[in-house]
Amino acid sequence: TAGRQEEGVDLCLPQPGVSRRHFQIVTEGGGYILRDLGSKNGTFLNGEKVWKETELKSGDIIKAGTEEFEFMV
């Protein structure tokens, strides 16, 4: 779980545009799923807004606020 708040998240992102609890990555069925947690500004995957749970692949780019991450397995 990633977000702006310091408690209750695994990755703290104290950046503009990041919600207190912004997004979550979970394991499911041997893969990884990206979930937006109702963030105000949205979570983006490879430049597209995440509207529902989306399967992640190695090399995908996740963006929250001004932060970008490359997902690697």
Task: Describe this protein's structure.
The chain has strands at residues 2-3, 11-12, 23-28, 31-36, 43-45, 48-49, 54-55, 61-64, 67-70. By secondary structure, the protein is mainly β. Strand 8 and strand 9 form a beta hairpin. The strands form three sheets. The chain has a four-stranded antiparallel beta sheet with strand order 6-5-8-9, with no helix packed on it. A three-stranded antiparallel beta sheet has the order 3-4-7, with no helix packed on it. Strands 1-2 form a two-stranded parallel ribbon. The mean pLDDT is 96. 0% of the residues lie in helices and 42% in strands. It starts with a strand and ends with a strand.
List the helices and strands and how they pair.
Elements lengths: L1 E2 L7 E2 L10 E6 L2 E6 L6 E3 L2 E2 L4 E2 L5 E4 L2 E4 L3
Parallel strand pairs: 1-2
Antiparallel strand pairs: 3-4, 4-7, 5-6, 5-8, 8-9
Q: Main attributes?
A:
73 residues; mainly beta; 0% helix
TL;DR of this structure?
The chain is mostly beta strands and 73 residues long. The protein is built from no helices and nine strands.
